[in-house]
Design brief:
The protein is α/β, with parallel strands linked by helices and 264 residues long. It contains ten helices and seven strands. The protein has a seven-stranded parallel β-sheet with strand order 3-2-1-4-5-6-7, with helices on both faces. Helix 4 links the parallel strand 4 and strand 5. The longest helix is centred in the middle third of the chain and has 29 residues. The protein is globular and about 55 Å long.
């Protein structure tokens, strides 16, 4: 049974592609947003062919100042009424902040903070007016801890953590579920590891597959849970970080191997 429209950002690969596949399998029509047009078009065609749902591919750079307005305007022009919004698009800015360029910092803040906030404002208002809808914000386990070498990434993911919690309270009683997802390491090409190491990390729960993360995220979303932290290891790490004082990280940062990673 077709259940309406789900909009997924960063839909062409990784967790975003897993979200798209699982929502299509459940009967949702898809608006798949990515800046990789060829990959997104191909996946949309596959999902339409396999599951019989409508799957529309939208090529858009979500770091642009007017990206949220462009996407919202496209949906209105196409007559698409979004019932599920999955904010998944992300980028990793690795290295100490002082070595980042102004463009890099601006792009990650726009992608993780500005555009998601505007999209939640636009589509969330429509959902609240209809009295139904779901919003899933993909944050990161780094939102719970100090994380050297990915300071901008961790800080912007912490913004999504705060945004999700605030929206959960604002939307309570209005028929709109808001869930924030906090994945740890996910088995994607982002990590330069051989297949043997990937299998080992997944066996011990230190790395999860995109399908597993997406499945747990969607389960929490449709159960209207406030947050989801996939994996026992990640749950334990978050609990430790909540109790550990910030100064406890300092001895780790002084280790020679960690200094080489941070400063090169």
């Amino acid at each position: 049974m077709k259940r309406g429209w789900a909009l997924i950002t960063g839909a062409s690969s990784g967790i975003g592609a897993a979200f798209s596949r699982q929502l299509a399998e459940a009967g949702w029509n898809l608006v798949m947003v990515s800046n990789r047009a060829e990959e997104c078009d191909g996946l949309a065609a596959q999902l339409h062919e396999r599951y019989g749902v409508e799957a529309k591919s939208v090529c858009l750079d979500l770091t642009l100042p007017d990206a949220a307005d462009q996407l919202y305007g496209w949906c209105r022009a196409e007559g698409v009424e979004v019932d599920v919004f999955v904010n998944n698009a992300g980028m990793l800015l690795f290295g100490v902040l002082e070595r980042s360029t102004p463009d890099q910092v601006g792009r990650i803040v726009a992608l993780h903070c500005t555009t998601p906030t505007q999209l939640c404002r636009l589509f969330g208002a429509e959902m609240a007016a209809r009295g139904r809808g779901y919003i899933l914000l993909v944050s990161s386990i780094t939102a719970w801890m100090p994380y050297p070498t990915v300071s901008a990434y961790a800080a912007t993911k912490a913004y999504l953590k705060s945004l999700g919690q605030s929206l959960w309270y604002e939307m309570r009683g209005r028929g709109v579920g808001v869930t924030t997802l906090f994945p740890s390491a996910v088995d994607t090409p982002l990590y330069d590891l051989d297949d043997r190491m990937r299998r080992r990390l997944r066996r011990f729960g230190l790395m999860l597959s995109p399908d597993e993360v997406a499945r747990k995220g969607l389960k929490a979303l449709f159960a209207r849970r406030r947050r989801s932290i996939p994996g026992l290891w990640a749950k334990g790490l978050v609990a430790v970080c909540a109790l550990l004082p910030a100064w406890a990280l300092w001895p780790v940062l002084k280790l020679p191997i960690v200094k080489r990673i941070i400063w090169g």
